[in-house]
Amino acid sequence: MQQWEELVTTNEQLKLRYSKLKIIADAVATWGYSDKSISLTEFILPSLTKAKSLKEVDQLWPGVFDDDNPGNIDEAAYLLEYVESFTKLFDDKQYKAAAIYVANCPRGILHNMEIMEKFKAVTEYEGYVSPLLDFFEAVMNSYSAVRHPPIAKMSLEGVKCALTHNRLDLVTRWVMQQRLTCSEALGDALYDYGETELQDFETCMALAQTVYNKCGVHKKAVLCMCMVGELTGAMEYIHDSKRFSLDDYLFLLNNYQNTELLRSLTREWKGNPAVFSIGQAVLWLVSTDPKDAGFHLLQEIYDQGQGALEQAILNDGVSTLEDWQEIADACNANSFNKLAKGIFRVLTSQEGGTVITFTSDDDKDGAKLTEHVLL
User: Three-state SS for 368?
Assistant: First the structure.
C-alpha cells in the first residue's frame, strides 16, 4: 500500500511537471511564429511566471488524467478535448495559437482540408502573415511526427499560399525535405512562378523539375532542364528514360523552340540513333508560330553544302515525299527560296520521283510550287 501511495505521488509530480513544460513549450513555439521583434527570454517571461506559480495539475483535458493507471487513459476524450481547445482558440481569433495546436495535434487529426478551409476563410487578421500560411507552416513542420505529407490538394494549396507571400524559401525547404505530395499541378505552379519572378527563375525550374520527376511527368522535367540551358542533361534524361513519345517531342519543340535542342533531337546521341525525324520536326515547327526554329535548322544543314541537305532528306526514314514537298512550300512562302530550291533539287534527283518546278503567279507576289508526276 505504501508503494502504491509513493507511485501516486510520483505520478502527480510528473503530471505537474508536464503541465509546466507544456506552458513553456507553447510559449516558445508561439515566439517562433512571431516576428521576433522582442527576445525569446522577454517573450516567455510571463509563461515562466505562470508555470512557476502552478501548484497542481491544471485540468487541461478533463477525464484524461482521472485514472492513475496510464493504460486506462480515455484517448477519445483526450482527442475531443484537444479539438475543442483548438476551436476555442480559433473562435477567439488567436490564430497563431490555433496554428500551434495544429502543429502539435495527436495523430495529425487537424491536418485536413476542413481545418485548412477555416484558416483560408480568415480575411481580417493582425500582422503581415496570413493565418493560412501559419497553418501550412504548422502542418509542414509537424511532418516528422505525423510521418506522412499532406495530400496532393493540400500540398498545392500550401505552395500557392507560400508563393503568394513570396516565401520561396519555405517552398524550397518543403520540396527538398519531401514534405509535400508531388503532383503535376504543383510543378506547374512552381514553373509559372519562375516565369513571373525572373530573379527566382533558376530556383523555380530546379524545384519544378524535382516535382515533375517524382510524379512521372518526364516531358515537363526535361523542359525545365532545357529552360536553364542544361541540354546535355536533357538529352541524357531522354535517352535513359526511353519513355518519350512523338507527342512528348512535339511538346518540347512547341514550348522551347531552340535550334540547339532541335539539332540534338534529330542527330545521333552517343551512339544512339536520333530520337526524332528532321522532316517531322521541321514540318511541325513551320506549321506553328513562330516558325523560325524550323527554318534555321534547315538553313544550318543547307550551309554545310548541298550534300548535307540531300543526306538529311534521304536518311529521313519517317517523313514522306509529300512531307518534304510541304516543307519546300513553307520555305518558299516565307522567303527562304534557296532552301526551297535545295529541297526541290534533292526530290527531283530521285529516279521515278516527283518533279517540282517554280512558276510565276501573276495574281500573287513571289512564287509557288507546282507538282508534275513523271511518266
Answer: strand
Contact 340, 299 (CB under 8 A): no
Alpha-carbon distance of 210 to 312, in angstroms, equals 36
Distance from C-alpha of 97 to C-alpha of 29, rounded to nearest angstrom: 9
Q: Is the confidence at residue 238, as pLDDT, over 80?
A: yes
**pLDDT in the model for residue 277:** 85
Burial class (CB in 10 A: 0-12, 13-18, 19+), 337: middle
Mean pLDDT of the chain: 81
Which 3 state secondary structure label does DSSP give 354? strand
Q: In terms of pTM, does the model score above 0.85?
A: no
**pLDDT tens digit string along 39-65?**
666 666 666 676 777 666 544 444 444
Question: Is the distance from CB of 243 to CB of 218 less than 8 angstroms?
Answer: yes
Grid cell locating 220: 515537363
- Please report which residue ranges of the chain form alpha helices under DSSP H: 2-33, 40-53, 75-91, 95-104, 113-120, 131-141, 143-146, 152-164, 168-176, 184-196, 201-215, 218-227, 231-241, 246-255, 259-265, 278-286, 292-303, 306-314, 321-333, 337-348
Q: Residue 319: left if φ>0, alpha if ψ -120 to 50, beta else—which one?
A: beta
Q: Which of 98, 179, 196, 120 is nearest to 144 (CA)?
A: 179
Strands 367-373, 354-360: pairing kind: antiparallel
Residue 330 has pLDDT above 70, yes or no: yes
The answer to whether 266 and 280 are in contact (CB under 8 A) is no
Integer Cα distance of 174 and 158 in angstroms: 10
Yes or no: say if 40 and 24 are a contact pair by the CB < 8 Å rule. Answer: no
